[in-house]
Amino acid sequence: MNIKNNQKGLTLIETLAATAILSLVVLMFANLSGYTLLADQKDDQQYRALQLAEKTINEIRKEAAEEPPYSSEKLQTEFLNNFNKESGAFSIRATHTDGVAPSKHSISLATVILAKKETGGGYIPEDIFVTVSWGDQDE
After folding, report:
1. Which residue windows are transmembrane per the record (predicted)?
2. What is the pTM for the complete model shown?
3. How far apart are CA 114 and CA 16, in angstroms?
4. CB-based contacts of 130: which residues, under 8 Å, 6+ apart?
């Protein structure tokens, strides 16, 4: 008697190996998607901070064009301090010196406005820095 054994299919070992490989691939993609979500959240915070900094700079320019502030101390105490505020999770600081140290949780923008000279009349350009920070600054 001549019996041919033409069974087609996978053995148990082949099935287990394929399942293990597929599981590793799925775990790698799941891990990668977690990092992507964290990166997206960081990008969202940076984008929102940039929007707040641009908005604040535009407000400073508009107000300075309507009534130019005085330079030096009065610029900070009587003019720029009006723009320092908290907005949700963000802290906004406007200065005429770049006294805010940059961190990975902050964005700084700069502009120039014309400020009145305290003596002699005329105007003088003043550098203005707007820094928006968020989250834990110690990280």
Report:
1. 16-38
2. 0.67
3. 74
4. 53, 56, 57, 60, 83, 92, 93, 94, 108, 109, 110, 111
